[in-house]
Amino acid sequence: MSAIRGDLLRKELSIFTFKDLLEHYPLRHLDKTKVEKIGSLSHGNDYAQIAGKLVDIQIVGERRSRRLVAYLQDNTGIVEMVWFQGISWMEKMLQVGNAYLVFGKLSFFMGKPQLSHPEVEIYTPQNAEGKAFLEPIYPTTEKLKAKGLTAKAIGKFTQELFKKISDKDLPENLPVHLLEQFRLMNRFDAFLQIHMPSSESNYQQAVRRLKFEEFFFAQFAIQLVRISRHKQSKGLLFEKIGPLFNQFYEHELPFALTNAQKNVIREIRKDTGSGKQMNRLLQGDVGSGKTMVALLSMLMAVDNGYQAVLMAPTEILAQQHFNTITAQLINIDIKVSLLTGSSTAKQRKPILAGCEDGTVNILIGTHAIIEDNVVFKNLGFAVVDEQHKFGVAQRAKLWKKNIIPPHVLVMTATPIPRTLALTVYGDLDYSVIDELPPGRVPVTTTHRFENTRSQVMDFIKEQLGLGRQAYIIYPLIEESSKLDYENLMKGYEEVKSFFPEPKYWISMVHGKQTAELKETNMQRFATKDTHILVGTTVIEVGVNVPNATVMVIESAEKFGLSQLHQLRGRVGRGADKSYCILLTGSKLSNDARERLKIMVGTNDGFKIAEKDLELRGPGDIQGTRQSGALLFKLANIVDDKAMLEVARNAVSEILEKDLELNLPEHQSLKTYIQSIRGKTGWSKIA
Ligand code: ADP
Ligand code: MG
After folding, report:
1. According to the model, what pLDDT value does residue 100 have?
2. What is the position in ligand 1's atom list of the atom closest to the CA of 569?
3. What are the residues whose beta carbons fall under 8 Å from the beta carbon of 465, sequence distance 6 or more?
4. How far apart are CA 379 and CA 405, in angstroms?
5. Residue 440: phi, psi to the nearest 5?
6. Cα 393 to middle of ligand 2, angstroms
7. In a 3-state reduction of DSSP, which class is residue 578?
């Protein structure tokens, strides 16, 4: 290959090595393996390859409709071929009386077969047999085409490459028992067949094998990280379940734990008693009771002489956790403090001192608690609530708050589909609360158009008459968006005119208020001082007012699925029947329509998350955007999730049995892993 072309391949398609070329997979294939009889061509053929004698050729039409028409005949019929471009060149090339092999897109005109712009070759006994494999069509770019590097030319390189290599150059990297168990094609054949398949079904098998390989090695890397962390990371040992935990559990617990909550507590107990550091992701749908799990875990830490922190993504939420937890711990001898961005210097001083000398047992707050000036005497347990609002970097900061890193429990109600969790958070251990506390009545969700708003307001009145409360939420796409705030204010005035004081009281919460004002307004709603809370998505996560039974979402078409689900989760938290009303304009995109349909159709956060993933694609899930872990060349975590599970299990089994890969059946795997670590073994394209 010339230097210029090599350069272009590198720049345009990131093809640097033979391996890159091998992994530059065809978009599709053309079937030139058969030579068809003209008489048997049917509408079922998109493309056709035929051989015959040229019997006539002529230029017809004027100007724009000027075209070259030629007729090819075999012993079963006659086919018309048409060219609108390159007319004079084709005319020179084609000779009446000669035999040709032609391939092109087939159509029928007045019942007669026609090939437009077919490829033409002189007929020879060799090509009369048809090609030995389906012809690959490669992705390319305009720049490459201009330099002659068409899809076909790239195909030539690939074919040349396959003439020079054998299965020794592409040795099997999966253990034979997996190939047998899952009927996977061997590696060399898979590469050969994905480029130049001898049949459609071989092509499918090749794709299947290579997808499996992608998942397998991605999982291998993730699981190795987790295992080595388990093995190496020394963790704080919580030796006992102590008096605080027991006293709380036996006398203060406000409700019986669900089995799911108990299981998670058990998992955490096991981890923290193992001497290794715990890094656990806890997923539980909105309202599943994650806060209680956090509280019980923190009590374990304090019983063992350690401090604990609970970090929430917003001030409102931190304050709420502080209120709930201090109320629940009223009879327990323990010091709980709150630290947020709006804590004054005067409030801060004793809290910081208490963290440093160990008198503060539990610190609740926003990311203010991970700032450098917050020093702990002996931090043993850190809970991160609503993890999707925090970055990995912030989590890492927590680790550094003690010489031996504290145990970390990351909680999220953003129901990450399992497949995604396995791929992105595969280095964390994973717990799930898959059960809601008993007595919850599912929220009824409806979609209404904006012109029925007055009926919706009447419905709210009815609910308020029963002593319940309501949320009305406006979209705030960007903190700085003037228009969004104007809409919110307009909405607020409108709601006020429907619900006049002093019969009704309304509080409003939005991002431009001071933390203090937000908190006051929230608090007035929580204590039933106000009937309606008008707000933006600042209340999206975590807020808990069980008496609220109506959630109206204005311009619901502007929200994403997971946001809608989070908002809906603010109601249905008590024993009363709750309602979520999605108000939209009349013009809806197909995607918006689909989202609304899903929301109306299900309350299941995990189903919604799966749908979200399907609609938006894996590249765009919150917090995972930069995660290379989701990007595979062939595999797709949505469409191929069953295979991902299979690959994941296969990897766990191998690593459990033979972590060092010493068994004879794992030697191919070991060799491969060593080779990709060093990244040698592949020569560069000249
Ligand atoms: P989330 O998982 O969304 O953070 P919370 O921890 O806020 O949920 O709990 C939601 C509500 O359910 C709270 O009012 C909480 O007191 C209540 N709750 C939690 N666990 C139980 C349980 N086992 N039985 C009854 N109510 C519970
Ligand atoms: Mg919560």
Report:
1. 95
2. 3
3. none
4. 8
5. -75, 135
6. 22
7. coil
Sign of CA dihedral 624, 629, 633, 637: negative
In this model, does residue 7 exceed pLDDT 60? yes
pLDDT digits (tens, 9 = 90+) for 551-571: 999 999 998 888 899 899 999
Q: Where in the chain is CATH 3.40.50.300?
A: 243-433, 444-602
* Reported CATH class of domain 34-130: mainly beta
Tokens, residue 503: 């019969």
H-helix segments, 400-452: 418-424
Backbone φ and ψ for 305, nearest 5 degrees, come out as 85, 15
Q: Which tens digits make up the pLDDT trace of 453-498?
A: 999 999 999 999 999 999 999 987 666 678 888 889 999 999 999 9
Neighbours of ion ligand 2 (CB under 5 A): 542
Ligand 1 and 605: CB distance under 6 A: no
Structure tokens at 684: 């560069």
CATH code linked to domain 444-602: 3.40.50.300
pLDDT(662) > 80: yes
Beta strands across the sheet bearing 407-412: 336-339, 362-365, 307-311, 379-384, 407-412, 279-284, 429-433
Atom 19 in ligand 1: residue holding the nearest Cα: 289
Take residue 541 and report the two structure tokens written for it: 């996560």
Distance of CA 511 to the CA centre of its chain: 28
pLDDT at 540: 61
Tell me the CA–centroid distance for residue 583 and ligand 2, in Å. Answer: 26
CATH 2.40.50.140 domain residues, the chain: 34-130
The whole-angstrom separation of Cα 576 and Cα 467 is 11
Q: How many whole angstroms from 511 Cα to the centroid of ligand 2?
A: 20
The per-residue pLDDT of the chain, averaged, comes to 87
| Separation of alpha carbons 568 and 580, rounded Å | 6
Q: Rounded to 5 degrees, what are φ and ψ at 443?
A: -75, 135
Domain 243-433, CATH class in plain words: alpha beta
Å from CA of 505 to ligand 1 middle: 27
Write b or e for each residue in 267-298: b if 16 or more Cβ atoms lie within 10 A of its Cβ, otherwise e. Answer: bbbebbbeebbbbbbbbbbbbbbbbbbbbbbb
Looking at residues 162-177, what average pLDDT do you find? Answer: 90
Task: In whole angstroms, give the CA distance from residue 426 to residue 281.
Answer: 10
Give pLDDT, residue 623: 46
**Residue closest by Cα to atom 17 of ligand 1:** 289
Nearest CA to 552 among 580, 512, 516? 580
